[in-house]
Predict the structure.
Amino acid sequence: MPVYSSMSVAETEAAFWDRESAEWMAKRATMNMLLDDTDAVMDQRTFERLNVYSTSVPTGAPVGKIWKCGRRFQGAPTVTVWYLGEYWDDGAIKLTGSVPIRWRLIHVV
């Protein structure tokens, strides 16, 4: 016999994303990095643990989800700059229905 929830679809979806965001925040707590509004400083191990999305963005958009994105300048044979992407809450999610991405320059030390 199926189990029906008394939550609406919107409430169920909000609960799912809250759980996803909590999982990402817990994962981030295990990473060795310092963040400010424009830069992300991290060790090599943390850098290697980040998933790479250089030609797309991750599916799903839980607040707190992070990844790295490599950019190559014209003529450069390999990636020359790495950015940390993060889905974050700018306070307007409920108004716009979309989750913005914050970009920070990665510095590996």
Notes: The mean pLDDT is 82.
